[in-house]
Amino acid sequence: MSRTLSARIEKFPIAGEFRISRESRTEATVVVAEITDGSHRGRGEGVPYGRYGESPEAVLAAVEAMAAAITGGLDRQGLRQEMAPGAARNALDCALFDLEAKASGVRAFTSAGLSGLEPLTTAYTLSLGEPEAMRAAAEAAADRPLLKVKLGGPGDVARIKAVRAGAPNARLIVDANEGWSHDTYFDNITACADVGVELVEQPLPADRDGLLATVRRPVPVCADESVHVASDLKALTGRYDAVNIKLDKAGGLTEALTMAETAEELGLTIMVGCMLATSLAMAPAVLVAQKAAVVDLDGPLLLAQDREPALRYDGSILHPPEPELWG
Predict the structure, then answer these.
(1) pLDDT tens, position by position, 154-194
(2) Where does a domain end: 107, 129, 162?
(3) Domain CATH number, residue 244
(4) Are 149 and 279 within one domain?
(5) Based on the number of CB atoms within 10 Å of its own CB, is 136 exposed (0-12), middle (13-18) or buried (19 or more)?
(6) How far, in Å, CA of 226 to CA of 209, rounded?
(7) Does 268 lie in the same domain as 308?
(8) What CATH number corresponds to the domain at position 84?
(9) Does 323 map to a domain?
(10) Under DSSP, is residue 304 helix (H, G, I), strand (E, B) or coil?
């Protein structure tokens, strides 16, 4: 059957404001790709990210530019050759994965080599703010087992101490979003170690992270902005202890699954993360997360409203997607 491609930009309000070291946002903007074969529909969602030079309009245009190739039968492996990694390729790759599952009746996790999907415990993110505001946010989320704390500026030592005071029993991971420097790294990571932080994501800018190969890391350090695809991973060894695999960076589930295999071979701990997006973006990431030591797929929990149908969250427990949503 002939396939057709359509795409659109969608916006979803965030519950409140979401702040990291480089930006503040009140809505999540996503690009949705849909591929149909006349009887079945596959969907994928990508998140344009300014840090990587992406805009919603450019990502939408990149998706739409693949219409003729998709109609001509381009598959997921061909897509990896035709498009650079990023949000546009992610939306298309996940839509092709979903269409394959719908058309064949074989669940996507089976095609990915998994025997099934188990519920996962996801981190819950606390936005960057003043110490007292972050303590209050930690207190409100103190019953969640794993909190991800956004840091990345002057006052981070006070911030992480405040979060620990607000949530004395929660496991903590930190995401600095490239916001530390060679001058602040030691004080900040020591403060993280002192309060029992288990992992620090991307403390230094991606182009200035060589320091990590030469210094003590009292808390394991995870690469985020420093890694996009599987071929990036080997260069990380010696600098990082873990890698954050995100489908929007990798350019889809197909590449992300390869990344997970490569990370295991290199002895890197696997974290699976997300951009601010809906359940449609989280669903394929659940497949990669089955092998992850740390799961951060809380995007829908930070929205004022998710799409329907949606993933089911019981507190911080994330249940596998139903076929009606994806896969």
Answers:
(1) 999 999 999 999 999 999 999 999 999 999 999 999 999 99
(2) 107
(3) 3.20.20.120
(4) yes
(5) middle
(6) 8
(7) yes
(8) 3.30.390.10
(9) no
(10) coil
Domain-located, residue 286? yes
Q: Are 324 and 308 in contact (CB under 8 A)?
A: no
**Number of H-type helices and E-type strands within the chain:** 11, 14
Binding site as annotated, residues: 175, 201, 224
- 161, 246, 249, 291: the catalytic one is 246
Known binding positions for Mg(2+): 175, 201, 224
Unique residue bearing structure tokens 């249940």: 319
The answer to whether residue 161 is catalytic is no
197, 219 in Cβ contact below 8 A?
yes
The yes-or-no answer on residue 246 being catalytic is: yes
Contact of 127 with 120, CB cutoff 8 Å = no
Both 253 and 161 in one domain: the answer is yes
Question: Which stretches does DSSP call E strand in 47-151?
Answer: 120-121, 124-126, 146-150
Residue where the block lists tokens 């344009």 = 48
Looking at 107, 135, 164, the residue that finishes a domain is: 107
Give the tens place of pLDDT for each residue, 1-14: 689 999 999 999 99
Q: How confident is the model at residue 18 (pLDDT cuts 50, 70, 90)?
A: confident
Please check whether residues 170 and 309 belong to one and the same domain.
Answer: yes
The mean pLDDT of 7-33, rounded to a whole number, is 87
| Domain span including residue 254 | 120-318
Write down how long the chain is. Answer: 327
120-121 and 41-46 strand pairing = unpaired
**Catalytic one among 102, 148, 150, 249?**
150
Percent over 70 (pLDDT), the chain: 98
State mean pLDDT over 243-271: 98
Number of domains in the chain: 2
Looking at this protein, which amino acid is placed at residue 228?
H
Give the integer Cα–Cα distance in Å for 323 and 37. 17
- For residue 327, being part of any structural domain is answered with no
209: its two tokens: 């992270």
